[in-house]
């Protein structure tokens, strides 16, 4: 590590519960950690537009040793290896931790100049967006059993991150994050490419994809205008649920805004009903 002393580990209270957050100011150190934890120490290329990682499954050896000590104190018959294999190993929650790793570079490799924000302010915004983005993935993992880096999940996480950082949704930021600030022109090298993978899309197919993403972002913007200021964590959770439960193709459709608003309303009513129960 180039700047080991600069690493900062904190415990963040998210909607999904407390989660440790490791902030990594040095870009090279961030790349090394991603290669280590995500790619098993292989020197793969990490896109410059990638600035955060939710690690779901870090072995906590202190917890494992504690489980062993507790088991040995009960004078159980048999061996610890057998106990670990049969009763500990299948339950990952007993010994696996989640960890969010954040870089401090501009979000999605979008400069302050591109979004018309003071550089120091953009650095603060970028870190806040990045943290809330990863916390959204953690929430969807706990709520729906998955946290993927597909385009649908990324739009949901970006929405929550922008609202948290700026206090309200900024459509132009989300478009810039995906390289669509000058739509229909696409800015090469933008974060959208991270989710296409190795798919060899024709110019026409890629144009259809960018059109779908642009329409989905328009829908999210219309929805946010209707919903207004995010009033509470509970409101934020309902918005996340609604966005996750509304398919990307539906978001991009002509009646996407209406369906998203209805799903959100249903979530609000369900929460209110449960509180009255």
Helices, strands, pairings?
Blueprint lengths: L7 E7 L2 E8 L2 H12 L13 E8 L1 H13 L6 H9 L7 E8 L8 H4 L3 H26 L6 H16 L4 H7 L25 H25 L5 H13 L2 H4 L4 H21 L1
Parallel strand pairs: 2-4
Antiparallel strand pairs: 1-2, 3-4
InterPro entries: DUF7005
Pfam families: DUF7005
Summarize the entry for a quick read.
The protein has helices spanning 27-38, 61-73, 80-88, 112-115, 119-144, 151-166, 171-177, 203-227, 233-245, 248-251, 256-276, and strands at 8-14, 17-24, 52-59, 96-103. With 277 residues, the chain is an alpha+beta fold. It has two domains: 4-60 and 95-276, no CATH class; 65-94, no CATH class.
Word description of this protein:
- With 277 residues, this protein is an alpha+beta fold.
- It has two domains: 4-60 and 95-276, no CATH class; 65-94, no CATH class.
- It is built from eleven helices and four strands, in the order ββαβααβαααααααα.
- The chain has helices spanning 27-38, 61-73, 80-88, 112-115, 119-144, 151-166, 171-177, 203-227, 233-245, 248-251, 256-276; strands at 8-14, 17-24, 52-59, 96-103.
- A four-stranded mixed beta sheet has the order 1-2-4-3.
- A hairpin with a 2-residue loop joins strand 1 (8-14) and strand 2.
- Helix 5 (119-144) packs across helix 6 (151-166) and helix 8 (203-227) crosses helix 11 (256-276).
- The radius of gyration is 21 Å and the shape is globular.
- The N and C termini lie far apart (53 Å).
- The model has no long low-confidence stretch (mean pLDDT 92).
- It holds the Pfam family DUF7005.
């Amino acid at each position: 590590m180039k700047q080991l002393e600069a690493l900062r580990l904190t415990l963040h209270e998210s909607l999904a519960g407390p989660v440790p957050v490791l902030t990594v100011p040095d870009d090279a150190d961030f790349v090394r950690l991603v290669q280590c934890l995500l790619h098993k120490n292989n020197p793969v290329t990490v896109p410059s537009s990638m600035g955060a990682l939710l690690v779901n499954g870090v072995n906590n050896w202190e917890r494992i040793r504690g489980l062993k000590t507790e088991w040995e104190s009960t004078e159980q018959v048999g061996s610890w290896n057998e106990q670990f294999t049969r009763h500990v190993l299948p339950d990952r929650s007993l010994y696996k931790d989640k960890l969010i790793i954040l870089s401090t570079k501009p979000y999605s490799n979008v400069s302050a100049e591109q979004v018309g924000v003071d550089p120091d302010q953009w650095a603060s915004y970028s870190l806040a967006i990045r943290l809330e983005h990863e916390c959204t993935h953690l929430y969807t993992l706990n709520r729906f059993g998955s946290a993927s880096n597909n385009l649908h999940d990324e739009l949901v996480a970006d929405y929550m991150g922008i609202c948290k950082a700026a206090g309200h949704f900024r459509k132009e930021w989300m478009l810039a994050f995906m390289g669509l600030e000058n739509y229909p022109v696409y800015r090469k090298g933008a974060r959208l490419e991270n989710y296409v993978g190795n798919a060899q899309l024709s110019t026409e197919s890629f144009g259809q994809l960018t059109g779908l993403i642009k329409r989905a972002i328009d829908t999210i913007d219309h929805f946010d205008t209707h919903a207004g200021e995010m009033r509470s964590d509970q409101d934020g959770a309902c918005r996340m649920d609604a966005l996750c439960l509304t398919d990307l193709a539906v978001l991009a459709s002509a009646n996407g805004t209406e369906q998203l608003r209805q799903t959100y309303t249903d979530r609000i009513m369900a929460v209110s009903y449960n509180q009255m129960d």
